[in-house]
Amino acid sequence: MALIPPFFLETLSERENKVGFSYLVKEEKASLGSQMSRRLAGTIRPVSESGLAVVIGLVVGAFLMLAFGYDPIRAYFALFTGAFGSPAGILESLAFATPLMATAVTFAVGVRAALFNIGAEGQMYVGAMGATIVGGAILLPAGVHPIAATLFAMCLGGLWALPAAVLKIWRGVHEVVSTIMLNWIAFWFVTYLIRTYFAEPGRAERAMPALPTARYAIIGATLTTMIVVVVVFCIAVTVLLWRTGVGFELRLVGDNPEAAKYAGASSSRAILVSFLVGGLAAGLAGASQILGRPPSYALYATMGNLINLGFDGIGVALIGRNHPVGGVFAAVFYGGLMHGGRFMEYNVGVASELVDAINGIIVIALAVPEIVAIIRRRRES
Amino acid sequence: MQAIIVVVIVLIAAAGAAWYLMTPPPAPVKKIAVVSDIGGRGDLSFNDMAFKGGDEAAKAFGVTMVELISKSEADYVPNLETAAKDPDVILVVGVGFLLTDAITDVATRYPDKDFAIIDGFVPGMPNVMSILYEEHKGSAIVGAIAALAAAQYGYSHIGVVLGIEIPVLWKFEIGYKWGADWGLKWYQNKFGKSAPVIGDTPVKDRVLWTYTGTFSDITKGYEAAKAMYAQDAVAAYNVAGPLGLGINQAVQELATQKGLTNGPPFWIGVDANQDWINPGFVLCSMMKRVDRGVYFATQLAVQGTFRQVVADNGGIVTLGIGTKISGIDITGISVSTLADLDEFIAMGTNAEKLTGKKVLPMSPDEIKSKATAMRNSVPSWIWDAATELENAIRADPNLVPLAMSQEVVDQWRATLG
Fold it and tell me: Are the beta carbons of A295 and B101 separated by less than 8 Å?
């Protein structure tokens, strides 16, 4: 932390950094009001861009439905009222959103350090295994049990991210290659562990479930207090990124490696921190499905209740503009699509494969602004 | 500026949608809801059969079937709940034991709604019917057929490839071994001499059996089956779902090597009629008619006798060979015939449409003619023996041993291997 001059830490937000230092100092002193309006303008632009993207996505999806002879208005009505139209619907959508909030952090923190970390999937499997081991196979008192299981899961997730980080720092191995390989290793490793050591006796399809003492309390539907833990974690990552020297270094390396080098920032440390935080997040996502998702509280064979949550986190991160808190809101939206989709099928009869396609189109449309931004940033640097 | 445009567009769209939705929805009809497990549509097995049964029941009893496809384990509860909340739904069916926890949970919270679960064991709830099957009886019949085929073609063994060793698979294993034994005794009675080749194999070595420890790793099925055929097994019975494709691969390798157009060697299908997968090389299939279970549950729900039947039977309804409940025939186990091959070919055609992938190995007509040629090449006395065993099972429901505990299994393994 001492590597970075203190004034950087206190006053620079990312956007202001681009504007320029001297301008900033004047502005800082000028008026609080104009600063706030600038902040507001800085928020409105991405939000309105995303709003436009939603509209485009919905329109394209509508044409797709028309092409297959479905009624798009009724279908969308079913989708959104199903997902957010009743308290039970909202709770269920939030339950679907919870793991995505965490896996979105994995990708977002990667992008902030100019990494394309797609290893959330495997880190999540390993994290879920960790939650199963401590939550299902070890006896602990009620208050301590969920905390211990969650922390162990996060640590394993972080541990699983390390090889990719080390390979990147040490040999320059591209993280896409290493993380995708580690995802598969995790899949088969966890499958092996479940089958050989942690299978629930008499049931072939899953590992032993988390013991009642290790479970998070149910709020409603399949939502548990786990969501609080995840949201707090996302806020903590935000604080880390924007309020600490380590976070500043990480973003600096991500934004402009040359300038970062000049400023004396350690790109190795930035990469390491990015992978580690990402791994913790993915591990938490894994734990959330074991310790905080009724009714089974168990890890299913072939990862049936986890599969793709890590990859979905990439889309969520892009919609949330690679900001952990943005990711929370994006995850709620995405969770709404996941839960609401069934009502398009149920109420309007839209084939479930088409529901997936429509949700995909909406997500892609939403992700476009951030993808463009990433490409633009790459070009500039 | 951008923001204003977006807001205006959203408002117009919302107003338009509201106006549009004012038009009244169609009059409600009674519905049944079928919730799939993660296999989803196009699995050519449990889920497709359940939808087929729901479809037939819907036509027969004037109700509508709604399908809810589960994409992940996390979808089970919300899918069941969506159906349970709908006042028009009279029955919610969960397909497969994977939904056991979810059904228990949702059925507890919706005590006024009726639920049925295929293959799941949820006893003692007034609104849940657990639909189970007498797999041991069907396994016994295919065991007899396999053993007699070994006698006919001069093979020394028969095989069975099993999945993970869980209690439900014991029913298959012991049933199959018992059936093989029955078949060879039948041969002795019929022809007055011990069956050739397999009859000389010690009783405890006749059936080669392997628990592969997986329901998904197709290679394991291939390896297990390959070893069995190398030890001179005439047929291997698939008791491991998709591993049947691995068994088929092992058979196909031998067929290509020797230039065969039909077996032996054979394999034996499970759950659905799998004879079409490689016609000529699938001797027969032990069918577990999930569609009949869904049909029966719907029938009871429509007649209003669902809860009575649940109460009378402790929540468990077992479909088997010639089983009856309240006078309704609920046969749900049978050995595949040429007659019912058509339905399953149609299922394959549907799956092809749905996934855009090639499912059927050849045209439906070719499948039919190859399967017919194979059946005709097998001497009729083998099929007669199967019918005889079926009749004996109908006459005595306790004829085939039901192995549900380790002790019983050990006991039978001590005598039959």
Answer: yes
Give the separation between CA A173 and CA A157, rounded to whole angstroms. 20
Give the pLDDT confidence score for residue B404 in this predicted structure.
85
Looking up residue B107, the CATH number of its domain turns out to be: 3.40.50.2300
B98 lies in the same domain as B171 = no
Total Cβ atoms within 10 A of residue B11: 10
Contact status of B388 with chain A (Cβ, < 8 Å): no
Determine whether A46 is exposed, middle or buried from the number of CB atoms within 10 Å of its CB (0-12, 13-18, 19+).
middle
Question: Chain B partners of A224 at a C-beta cutoff of 8 Å?
Answer: none
Number of structural domains (chain B) is: 2
Name the more confident of A29 and A223: A223
Query: Are the beta carbons of A77 and B21 separated by less than 8 Å?
Result: yes
For A77, nearest residue in chain B (alpha carbons): B17
Contact B97 A205 (CB under 8 A): yes
Q: Give A52→chain B minimum CA distance, Å.
A: 6
Cα diameter, chain A: 71
Query: Is B82 in Cβ contact with A346 (below 8 Å)?
Result: yes
Contacts of B40 in chain A (CB under 8 A): 352
Q: Of A266, A306, A311, whose CA–CA distance to A287 is shortest?
A: A306
Domains of chain A: 72-380 (1.10.3470)
Q: Is the ipTM of this complex over 0.90?
A: no
pLDDT (tens digit per residue) in B5-56: 767 777 787 777 777 776 665 667 899 999 998 877 777 788 889 999 999 9
Side-by-side strand order, sheet with B266-271: B207-211, B157-162, B233-239, B266-271, B282-288, B333-335
Considering the domain architecture, whether residues B238 and B339 belong to the same structural domain is answered as: yes
Q: How far is A239 from chain B (nearest CA, A)?
A: 29
On whether residue B10 sits in a domain, the answer given is no
Instruction: Name the closest residue on chain A to residue B25, using Cα atoms.
Output: A74
| DSSP β-bridge partners for residue B238 | B161
On whether residue B131 sits in a domain, the answer given is no
Q: Is B126 on the interface with A (CB under 8 A)?
A: no
| Chain A, nearest residue to B97 by Cα | A205
What is the C-alpha to C-alpha distance for residues A315 and A321, in angstroms, rounded to an integer?
Answer: 10
Distance CA A282, CA A259 (A): 30
**pTM, two decimal places:** 0.84
Taking CA atoms, what residue in B is nearest to A97? B74
